Amino acid sequence: MTRSGSYDIHKLHRDESAEIQRLAAQARLGWEKEVRTLSWSGLENGMSLIELGSGPGFVTEALLALVPKSQITCLEIDTMLLQKAEQY
Ligand SMILES: C[S@@+](CC[C@H](N)C(=O)[O-])C[C@H]1O[C@@H](n2cnc3c(N)ncnc32)[C@H](O)[C@@H]1O
């Protein structure tokens, strides 16, 4: 698979751990609005979900708390971020 998106943590950020912390903060700060949008879009507990560009997994974690009966498939192109998510 080749990268075609605009986000590449290795090119955009010299301090990758700081960027991962920023993603954690962003996921937390924006979550209430995300929940409203997801509810409005028809999200229900038990649905099968795919999360595109799941990164280190902070949104995945919040989604699992919101819809614990759902199965979430994560798609992530970056090996390092995928490993972070698996560890997390
Ligand atoms: C801005 S980050 C957001 C990460 C995560 N959703 C979060 O909120 O913490 C965008 C993510 O999309 C991933 N990504 C970019 N292009 C992709 C592609 N073509 N397929 C899968 N993942 C991709 C990046 O590696 C990165 O982890």
Instruction: Summarize the biggest pleated sheet.
Output: 2 strands, parallel
On the 0-100 scale, what is the average pLDDT? 94
CATH level 1 name: Alpha Beta
| Principal-axis shape | globular
Tell me briefly what this model is:
This protein has helices spanning 9-12, 16-29, 31-40, 58-66, 79-87, and strands at 48-52, 71-75. With 88 residues, it is mainly alpha-helical.
What's the topology here?
Elements: H1 9-12, H2 16-29, H3 31-40, E1 48-52, H4 58-66, E2 71-75, H5 79-87
Parallel strand pairs: 1-2
The structure holds S-adenosylmethionine.
S-adenosylmethionine is lined by residues 4-5, 7, 23, 27, 53-56, 58-59, 75-78, 81.
Describe the structure.
The protein is built from 5 helices and 2 strands; from the N terminus they run H-H-H-E-H-E-H. The protein has 88 residues and is mainly alpha-helical. It has a single domain, classed as 3-Layer(aba) Sandwich (Rossmann fold). It is globular. The two termini are 24 Å apart. The model has no long low-confidence stretch (mean pLDDT 94). The chain binds S-adenosylmethionine. Residues 4-5, 7, 23, 27, 53-56, 58-59, 75-78, 81 line the site of S-adenosylmethionine.
